[in-house]
Write a structure and sequence with these properties.
This protein is α/β, with parallel strands linked by helices. It has 2 domains: 1-69, no CATH class; 72-100. The chain contains 1 helix and 7 strands. It has one helix at 73-99; strands spanning 13-16, 20-22, 27-34, 38-40, 45-52, 57-59, 63-65. A 4-stranded parallel β-sheet has the order 1-3-5-7, with no helix packed on it.
Length: 100
């Protein structure tokens, strides 16, 4: 699997209706959510996450690395707003303490 156009494995999601099996030597990226089970056979490389809602996740000499997700624009804006609000509250507290 090749991610293009600045895609990040942390922002790619796959929903599997039942079970997923990843073949020998596969290289995959993203988050895979299976309703049943997942099997990663010999030598599978995962840049992402694997979830099985009702069954097992079976690994056979596979490598899984969890990517750093890039926050979506709305999440980033919310975080920026929260940081600004904390800054205002800290400044207000300093002003009140200085005037007492």
């Amino acid at each position: 699997m090749v991610l293009t156009n600045n895609a990040s494995a942390g922002n790619v999601w796959f929903q599997v209706g039942s079970s997923a099996t990843f073949g020998t030597g596969s290289s995959i990226a993203g988050t895979f959510i299976s309703s049943a089970s997942d099997t990663l056979v010999t030598g599978v490389t995962v840049n992402g996450r694997i979830f099985a809602l009702t069954g097992a996740i079976t690994l056979d000499t596979s490598h899984v690395s969890v990517p750093t997700a890039v926050p979506e624009p709305a999440g980033a804006a919310l975080l920026l707003g929260a940081v600004a609000l904390v800054g205002v509250l800290v400044q207000r507290k300093r002003t009140v303490a200085a005037s007492v």
